[in-house]
């Protein structure tokens, strides 16, 4: 399953969620595709905070944003997504995007990990406004993520069903540990 197909599936929900003026977070900036999408959707009156721990991701995303000619409504942060609560107020964010795993084309030893991902996801819940959306794509396999995948899925299963709707999709007939897209909606 190609990452582009997953991104398109998630982008459908993100596109319906994000409105001009919204505050959004790209929790795992990576190659910048989600940052570009969020920036273009929230327009000049909104703002996107994008996080990554790799300088390569930040530099690549900065250039892609300039090339895409999107509004300059973003802040690129070279730090962990566990610090997102230092930048936005509780219950103020419309959409938060996570892609767990490693930077495509990057160093596979620099990947997300269960403990920090769950910490960031937990903080995300308090940042979402009512009706807010978390788009989460869990990449696992080979050299990344089985432990993280299992821990995050367990965490998701235990979310309060009165406060959050969790929708998990599986590419059931795909080999080689396909990604798992998940939506979390604050009710």
Strand proportion, as a percent range, falls in 15-25%
Average predicted confidence as pLDDT: 89
Tally the helices.
5
Task: Give the % helix.
Answer: 25-40%
H/E element sequence: HEHEHEEHEHEE
What best-fitting shape do the alpha-carbon axes yield?
globular
Low-confidence stretches: none
Strand order of the largest sheet: 3-2-1-4-5-7-6
Q: Report the structural category.
A: alpha/beta
Q: In total, how many beta strands?
A: 7
Cα(first) to Cα(last) distance is 31 Å
User: What Rg is obtained from the alpha carbons, in whole angstroms?
Assistant: 15 Å
User: Main sheet, how many strands, which sense, barrel?
Assistant: 7 strands, mixed
Notable features of this structure?
187 residues, alpha/beta, seven-stranded mixed beta sheet, 25% strand, methyltransferase activity, transferase, MnmM_MeTrfase, SAM-dependent_MTases_sf
Write the layout of secondary structure elements.
Layout: H1 3-17, E1 23-26, H2 33-42, E2 47-52, H3 55-68, E3 74-78, E4 93-100, H4 114-127, E5 128-138, H5 146-157, E6 164-168, E7 180-186
Helix pairs in contact: 1-2, 4-5
Describe this structure in words.
35% of the residues lie in helices and 25% in strands. The protein has helices at residues 3-17, 33-42, 55-68, 114-127, 146-157, and strands at residues 23-26, 47-52, 74-78, 93-100, 128-138, 164-168, 180-186. The chain has a 7-stranded mixed sheet with strand order 3-2-1-4-5-7-6, sandwiched between helices. Helix 4 runs parallel beside helix 5. The termini are far apart. The relative contact order is 0.16. The mean pLDDT is 89.
């Amino acid at each position: 399953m190609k990452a582009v197909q997953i991104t398109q599936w998630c982008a459908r929900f993100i596109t319906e969620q994000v409105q001009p003026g919204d505050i959004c977070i790209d929790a795992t900036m990576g190659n910048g595709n989600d940052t570009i999408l969020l920036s273009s959707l929230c327009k000049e009156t909104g703002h996107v905070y994008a996080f990554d721990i790799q300088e390569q991701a930040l530099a690549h995303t900065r250039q892609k944003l300039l090339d895409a000619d999107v509004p300059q409504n973003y802040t690129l942060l070279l730090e962990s997504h566990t610090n997102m609560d230092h930048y936005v107020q509780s219950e103020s964010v419309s959409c938060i995007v996570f892609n767990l795993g490693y930077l495509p084309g990057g160093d596979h030893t620099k990947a997300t990990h269960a403990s920090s991902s769950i910490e960031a996801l937990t903080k995300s819940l308090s940042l979402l406004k009512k009706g807010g959306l978390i788009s989460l794509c869990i990449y696992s396999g080979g050299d990344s993520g089985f432990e993280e995948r299992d821990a995050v899925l367990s965490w998701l299963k235990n979310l309060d069903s009165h406060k959050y709707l969790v929708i998990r999709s599986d590419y059931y007939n795909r080999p080689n540990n396909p990604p798992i897209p998940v939506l979390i909606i604050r009710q």
